[in-house]
């Protein structure tokens, strides 16, 4: 990969991961409800899970959809259902003190697995491979995945810290309830926008 292409890939990757989407909104909500430390496994699940998804997609997972097209439709239905479930959980999250004992942030494995039912993640992975790993060889795919690891560290940390800093303003159950419901609504909105974009494409 040339230096110029690497710069373009880095810009593309950073833009796609830093913009609001299911991962970032969930990190922000987790930072606000559970704090930075308890959200670290969630952050690592995204930072490592999505690049792993890129590698597998780049090395031929999409061929499964070519062989059996209904599989992609089933994946999208499951994705929508799971995201709506997560939105409901965020909307009904417990206040910070109760969350310390009752609530549970996503684990590393849950967060990594979530990438496979995240419509935005699929869109990002397919676009990145199509644009920057056209040869589909292992080296090119690993470059794309590696860049996403680096930019994801910046993105996941930023969104989690943002949520954590907002925690001081969410010191009443009423404010936190409003915040969580807004986050849940935004999560559903990002889902609608991604699905609309895919439909238009």
Key phrases:
globular; 201 residues; mainly alpha
Amino- and carboxy-terminal Cα gap? 28 Å
Whole-number count of domains: 1
Count of DSSP-assigned helices? 9
User: N-to-C SSE series?
Assistant: HHHHHHHHH
- Share of residues in helices: over 70%
Structural Rg:
17 Å
The geometry reads as globular
Largest beta-sheet details: none
- Averaging pLDDT over every residue, what do you get? 85
Poorly predicted ranges? none
**Strand-residue fraction?**
under 5%
The computed structural class is mainly alpha
Number of DSSP E strands:
0
What does it look like?
It is a single chain. This protein has helices at 3-18, 22-34, 36-67, 70-91, 96-99, 108-114, 119-132, 138-166, 173-200. Helix content is 82%, strand content 0%. The chain has nine helices and no strands. It has one domain. The protein has 201 residues and is an all-alpha fold. The two termini are 28 Å apart.
Short structural description:
With 201 residues, the chain is mainly alpha-helical.
Layout of strands and helices, then pairs:
Elements: H1 3-18, H2 22-34, H3 36-67, H4 70-91, H5 96-99, H6 108-114, H7 119-132, H8 138-166, H9 173-200
Helix pairs in contact: 1-8, 2-3, 2-8, 2-9, 3-6, 3-7, 3-8, 4-9
């Amino acid at each position: 990969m040339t230096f110029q292409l690497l710069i373009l890939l880095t810009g593309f990757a950073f833009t796609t991961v830093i913009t609001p989407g299911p991962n970032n909104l969930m990190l922000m909500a987790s930072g606000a409800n559970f704090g930075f430390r308890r959200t670290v496994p969630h952050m690592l699940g995204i930072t490592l899970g999505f690049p792993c998804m890129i590698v597998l997609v780049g090395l031929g997972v999409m061929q499964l959809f070519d062989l059996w097209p209904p599989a992609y439709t089933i994946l999208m239905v499951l994705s929508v259902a799971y995201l709506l479930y997560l939105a409901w959980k965020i909307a009904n999250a417990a206040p910070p003190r109760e969350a310390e004992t009752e609530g549970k942030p996503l684990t590393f494995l849950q967060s990594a697995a979530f990438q496979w039912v995240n419509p935005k993640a699929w869109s990002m992975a397919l676009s990145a491979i199509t644009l920057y790993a056209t040869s589909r060889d292992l080296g090119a795919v690993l470059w794309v995945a590696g860049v996403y690891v680096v930019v994801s560290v910046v993105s996941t940390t930023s969104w989690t810290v943002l949520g954590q800093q907002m925690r001081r303003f969410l010191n009443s159950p009423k404010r936190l309830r409003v915040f969580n419901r807004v986050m849940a609504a935004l999560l559903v909105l990002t889902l609608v926008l991604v699905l609309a974009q895919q439909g238009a494409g």
